[in-house]
Design a protein that fits this description.
The protein is built from six helices and five strands. It has 126 residues and is an alpha/beta fold. The protein has a single domain, classed as Rossmann fold, CATH 3.40.50.1010. It has a five-stranded parallel beta sheet, sandwiched between helices. Helix 1 (11-18) crosses helix 3, helix 3 runs antiparallel to helix 4 and helix 5 (77-90) packs across helix 6 (94-105). 37% of the residues are buried.
């Protein structure tokens, strides 16, 4: 991966990074690499919900502030249809399919710790 490559860090990575989890450094290496970072709206939802639900509201607000500096990608009808096809073909859950469809649609490299993505093209599992 080059510094100019477009990346997409999924929810698990942002939670580790923002919540100072055990894989914070591994995800930080990608997030802080200088690469342009896509951020699907479903990732904003998942990360903020997780941080809020676990009582880390201040960290959740810090994430939102950080998120607004990324390339936010809303779910539109084209991405929804692509995600539905990917979900059916790859047996991915809805959110994972949306995240993967977003990465694929923008030719971005997906960075995750979610084993559901293992073996898919364009994915690095941390």
């Amino acid at each position: 991966m080059t510094a100019s490559e477009l990346i997409l860090v999924d929810s698990s990575g942002w939670i580790e990074y923002m919540g100072e989890g055990p894989k914070e450094g591994e995800f930080g290496r990608f997030i802080e690499s200088g690469s342009a970072t896509l951020l699907p709206t479903i990732v904003i939802y998942e990360v903020y919900k997780k941080l809020w639900a676990t009582g880390r509201k201040t960290v959740g607000e810090r994430f939102v502030s950080h998120a607004l500096r990324q390339l936010v990608v809303p779910l539109d009808e084209r991405l929804a249809l692509t995600a539905a096809q990917i979900s059916a073909e790859q047996k991915l859950h809805m959110a994972d399919a949306i995240i993967y469809a977003t990465a694929q649609s923008f030719s971005a490299h997906l960075i995750t710790s979610d084993q559901a993505f293992q073996g898919l093209p364009g994915v690095t599992v941390v």
